[in-house]
Specification:
Layout: H1 9-36, H2 38-43, H3 49-53, H4 55-78, H5 93-105, H6 114-136
Helix pairs in contact: 1-4, 1-6, 4-5, 5-6
Length: 137
């Protein structure tokens, strides 16, 4: 049995496209941290992306990145890099969007920051389960 994987740029590109929703939400965790720390960062003269965009625009971007992660799943399916059953993952959209809205309404690290981590876990589990189901079909 041959268990070697022949990597090519095409395969690496496919892996990148399929994993991009998770990469986006990982970045969103770091961004949420900056949003929650905005006041403290300003007081300590730390210039994060939130400083340059402003708090309002940063909150819009944070929510937009959640939507972009969901759109990227559709793109991966259209490109036939991800299996069609992965569309079921989009049923998680209301949870992800509600978590993003809740965080941006009250971006307090001790209270709502965990929602950005939950979003990553929820999407990761959804993508993994749908991928396994598609493989077993």
């Amino acid at each position: 049995m041959n268990t070697q994987i022949q990597l090519s740029l095409a395969i690496l590109w496919q892996w990148l496209i399929v994993s991009l929703p998770l990469v986006i939400l990982i970045a969103n965790i770091m961004f949420a941290n900056n949003i929650a720390d905005h006041q403290e960062d300003e007081e300590n003269h730390r210039h994060t992306l939130v400083h340059y965009l402003g708090l309002s625009r940063s909150k819009v971007l944070y929510q937009g990145l959640v939507v972009l992660a969901l759109i990227e799943i559709i793109v991966a399916i259209i490109l036939k890099y991800a299996p069609l059953p992965m569309l079921v993952t989009l049923l998680l959209a209301p949870i992800l969007i509600q978590n993003a809205r809740t965080f941006t309404k009250r971006p307090i690290k001790e209270e709502t920051f965990v929602l950005s981590i939950k979003n990553l876990v929820v999407l990761m589990l959804g993508m993994t389960i749908t991928l396994v189901v598609a493989i077993m079909m």
